[in-house]
Amino acid sequence: MNWKNIFKSLKSRDMQKRLLIVLGLIVAYRFLAHVPVPLAQPTELKHVLDNLLRSSDLGGFINLLSGGALASLSIVLVGLSPYITASVITQLLTKALPNLEELHKDGESGRRKIQQWTRLITLPLALLQSVAFIFILRQTVLAGNTGVDIVANTAPLQWATMIAAMAAGSMLLMWLGELMTEQGVGNGMSILIFAGIIAGFPSTFSTIVNSLFSFNSDADKLHVFNWFTLPVNWFALVVVSGLALAGLVALYMIVKINEAQRIINISYAKRVQGNRAYGGVTSILPVKLITAGVIPVIFAVAFLALPAFIGQLLKGAHDPHWQQIGLNLTTWFKTPDATTFASGEITAFIYPIVYFLLVVGFTYFYTSIVFNSNEIAENLQKQGGFVANIRPGQQTEKYLNSIVTRLTLFGSLSLGIIAILPFVTEYVLGQFGIQAQNLAIGGTGLLIVVSVTLETLRQINSRALMVTYDQDY
């Protein structure tokens, strides 16, 4: 990372304009996160949602990824989940249908058509998830016997207004993300998720500070060799220090894994045209350890929320059989904590195991889309490039595939281990009687924040290199 080039590029009007547009769109997103869905009894519902977030891990995850939109029942509550699902569907179809694969190879025009189809698929998914969110919240609120029914005595026009507002909020987020991506300083969708997670950091920091300075008696204070006493809860200080140290180690691992890459030397044959000689040079082809970046984690979290959503819907069915299935789904796919692990039930380990497998699987899946060995081998052959001791064409493709497969194996396993590390920490702390609430949510947030930050800085650095090159020459 060339910080000198980045700071130098900030003098450019074009760079300033791009960064200001992205910052302005983030501010607009945070504003939308506080625009409520038109519902009755907003005050009572706000109180119910606060209690729900404190007692539900699923609600905590949704609130984390939506940037607090669940807490205020915002119009952007559905978030980017429909767009993520639509992207997975279109990418799977691109691999499965030869016509779509040919369209993808057509270049920018083909990719624009596929992107347009992704947008069209996003709309019905957003409508469907909006209805599902309202029903899930209703079932959860009624299950708590709060006396508040968010859809009681609701007219068809009010139903349509609620669903349209939430679906429009999801489509608006998709549009904001695409506008950010067009600026060339990062992936817009990832930046929006990043902004939503960062928005919750002040409240998390406030909770940590309050826990450090809250104590019931003098015995809870920190006594330094009986010389003097500090007004700090010694137990909370030990826990926070241990978690901070573990966070720094995890941060170091995430940075190293994200930055790791394999360098492949590419040689170009020397060609003579007229009086000029071309080629005869050597360049490099960097292959990242985790080519997919943070996308597998985002996909995995989005897909893991699906069984719990379906379970919440089935729990409201009249048939006891479907109710039991819904109860099983919500139990199996509930985010485990120290209390769940302490129960000793095997179901507490289902969520971390499936989470790990999904991260590994999505890493392979997304890498196969981002890194096309066949296309790279063809382009190298057309340009007269080759890998030493490897024949151009099919042999180069096999060589690249073997390297990417080995790198992805280690990278996906490392990413999966980092993803479930908070669950392991909660389990270990629970064995010592230490309750670490929402540690898994914080761990997932840290993983997404660090990965998105590195990827965004990498793209800003590339843009800065272009800007400073124009200034120097």
Describe the structure concisely.
With 473 residues, this protein is mostly helical. The chain has 18 helices and seven strands.
How does this structure look, described?
The chain has 473 residues and is mainly alpha-helical. It has helices spanning 3-9, 13-32, 42-55, 57-65, 81-96, 98-105, 108-143, 156-182, 188-198, 201-212, 234-259, 295-315, 320-332, 338-342, 350-370, 373-382, 394-431, 439-472; strands at 221-224, 228-233, 261-268, 271-273, 276-278, 282-288, 385-387. The chain has a 3-stranded antiparallel sheet. Strands 1-2 form a two-stranded antiparallel ribbon. Strands 4-5 form a two-stranded antiparallel ribbon. The longest helix has 38 residues, at 394-431. The mean pLDDT is 78.
**Proportion of strand residues:** 5-15%
Largest beta sheet: strand ordering? 6-3-7
Point out poorly predicted stretches. Answer: none
* Beginning-to-end CA distance, first to last residue: 21 Å
How does the major sheet shape up?
A: 3 strands, antiparallel
Quaternary state, please? single chain
Give the averaged pLDDT, no decimals: 78
- State the secondary-structure class: mainly alpha
Computed Rg? 25 Å
- Total count of strands: 7
Shape annotation: globular
Number of helices: 18
What is the string of SSEs from the N terminus onward? Answer: HHHHHHHHHHEEHEEEEHHHHHEHH
Helix content: 55-70%
List keywords for this structure.
three-stranded antiparallel sheet; two-stranded antiparallel sheet; mainly alpha; single chain; 18 helices
